[in-house]
Specification:
Blueprint lengths: L2 E2 L7 H23 L5 E3 L2 E4 L2 E2 L2 E5 L3 H5 L5 H13 L4 E5 L12 E3 L2 E2 L1 H17 L2 E5 L9 H11 L14 H15 L16 E5 L13 H17 L4 E3 L26 H5 L7 E5 L1 H4 L5 H23 L3 E6 L11 H20 L4 E6 L22 H17 L3 E2 L1
Parallel strand pairs: 5-6, 5-14, 6-9, 9-10, 10-11, 12-13, 13-14
Antiparallel strand pairs: 1-15, 2-3, 3-4, 7-8
Helix pairs in contact: 1-12, 3-4, 5-6, 6-7, 10-11, 11-12
């Protein structure tokens, strides 16, 4: 249990201001302490050098894809520099690009890799180290973008394996073998820039089994649970130094039927409780997209859902899972709201950040949040409506920077 040390005779608003000011003083020492040290879990909290680790971070799924072309690598460097300037200390990105043709495919066919693309990932990992930003690397996509599990299934089908649906990804031994080979290839990769094996690189915070696993064949969550159990054991057999998470959105399943009413009106074949109780899974994740999940609902309804979604998962992570929790994706799209403006996004982000901060302040298990997504200028083809260019959005930059400061300094006021 983490507790917050509250100085006497000060209001919480005064403490919040003090935390913001202290952040600037602490940053240099924190950066030195974090380098060359793995993020670990102690009880239900993240720690570095046995001290609490709270963070603010971001998603940038595109990094390897862009870094494959050396002339475009400055975009990766720019985003990492802007993020570091804003105090962001964790980045989640893809370590996959499966089949489908094109000149930026990492895994051309099962076990066949394009070294040029792998060197793009090497650059991302090396550059993240340069700027002191931890990475969460995802092994495969649930969706067809960048190949995904449908590509794995197609490879098996093309080789003569009897396949009934994309959900065979979770059960077919040939397909699971393809996936395991990819996992091993990434974990054992030796970075051509740093000469550090990925398995020994402390700036990699965690591995992720899949981006947003979903399953139509079994809505109970058991099929994905069996797959996650097998793959988590396999990852840990290769690498016990790094943390591991599944990549889940947070949908509830059959373990706690009453919790299903928290879902946004549908199930996706996962079980937030059962799946994250797997022993080899070190921390839980949730995503939050009320603008997608409750499309057509008004702003107040979506905001109320977001608060309930966070509150319920905060509680369950603390009392049932007893593991850290990360809000691994959240954002507000300019495409889903015809009346969108930056102020709406800023207000939404402030509300999410406040929920994270308040939960962390009282000793909850939440470690931080990762906004979706940060990009550099000139990357319009990667835009999805959620993109944020920090240099072009000073108000959003200020909000993110403030959250980074208070979360970082709060780490020093927590006692585990």
């Amino acid at each position: 249990m983490a507790t917050y040390i509250k100085p006497p005779n000060l209001s919480w608003s005064a403490i919040f201001l003090i935390i913001s000011l202290l952040g600037c003083v602490c940053e240099a020492r924190i950066y030195r302490d974090k380098q060359n040290t793995f993020v670990r879990v102690k009880g239900s909290h993240f720690v570095i050098n046995k001290s609490p680790f709270l963070f603010n971070g971001f998603n940038a799924y595109w990094m390897m894809n862009v870094a494959t072309e050396p002339s475009e690598r400055y975009k990766v460097s720019q985003v990492l520099q802007d993020a570091a300037n804003a105090g962001l200390s964790v980045c989640r990105t893809w370590a996959f690009a499966d089949g489908g043709g094109g000149d930026r495919v990492l895994q051309i066919s099962p076990g066949v890799y394009d070294e040029r693309v792998f060197q793009g990932l090497d650059f991302v990992v090396a550059e993240a180290r340069k700027y002191g930003i931890r990475l969460i690397l995802s092994f495969v996509n649930n969706y067809k973008d960048f190949g995904g599990r449908s590509q794995y299934v197609e490879w098996a089908r093309n080789s003569g394996v009897q396949i009934s649906s994309d959900d065979d990804f979770y059960t077919n031994p040939i397909v699971k073998g393809y996936y395991k080979n990819h996992v091993q290839r990434v974990i054992t990769r030796i970075n051509t820039i740093t000469n550090i094996a990925y398995s020994n690189d402390s700036m990699i915070m965690a591995w992720e089994l899949m981006n947003e696993p979903r399953c139509q064949a079994d809505y109970s969550g058991r099929m994905i649970n069996d797959w996650a159990q097998e793959m988590a054991f396999f990852v840990k057999s290769l690498d016990r130094r790094h943390l591991l998470e599944i990549g889940m959105e947070g949908f509830y399943g059959d373990t706690m039927p009453k919790r299903k009413k928290i879902n946004p009106g549908f199930q996706i074949g996962t079980d937030f409780i059962k799946n994250n109780l797997i022993r080899e899974i070190d921390f839980a994740t949730i995503h939050a997209y009320p603008d997608q999940w409750l499309s057509g609902k008004d702003e107040d309804t979506q905001m109320a859902f977001m608060r309930r979604w966070l509150c319920t998962h905060f509680k369950d992570s603390k009392t049932i899972l007893k593991k850290p929790l990360v809000l691994a994706e959240f954002g507000k799209s300019s495409k889903d709201d015809p009346h969108f403006d930056i102020n709406k996004r800023d207000s939404y982000m402030k509300a999410v950040y406040r929920n994270i901060y308040m939960e962390a302040r009282i000793g909850g298990t939440v470690g931080g949040g990762l906004v979706w997504q940060i990009m550099a200028e000139g990357m319009g083809s990667y835009g999805d409506g959620y993109e944020i260019i920090l240099s072009d959005n000073p108000s959003t930059n200020r909000i993110m920077s403030r959250q980074s400061r208070v979360m970082t300094t709060l780490s020093h006021l927590l006692r585990i």
